[in-house]
Fold this protein.
Amino acid sequence: MSSFDATMRMMRRNNPQTQEAGFRLLLARAGDHIDALLGEFATEQDPGLRCRLLELIGAAESPKALPDLLAQLDSPDEALRRWAARGLSGLGTREARTALWRARANSSGHRP
């Protein structure tokens, strides 16, 4: 079992301290695991874990994350939209800044 897999198992435990410890371990090396994080996010069903994964994806500050972060700007889940915006802010690319500007211009309280 890889260290990434072991850390993901920690994040799936019922113990909040173990979950947080797993998150912190991944946070320190999010960029090294961006492909695996994107894969986990694509298949994860638990809303809370999806938020934590998107937070890690944003923390990786990888251009590979751009499509997923852009897609989550339109999520019906407010928390995912927030983490996507934070991740895009961290990327600092022209495309990310443009998407953030458009999202802010369009968010006048008309979200479903």
Notes: The helical segments are 3-11, 16-27, 34-43, 47-59, 66-72, 78-91, 94-106. Residues 78-91 form the longest helix (14 residues). The chain has a mean pLDDT of 94.
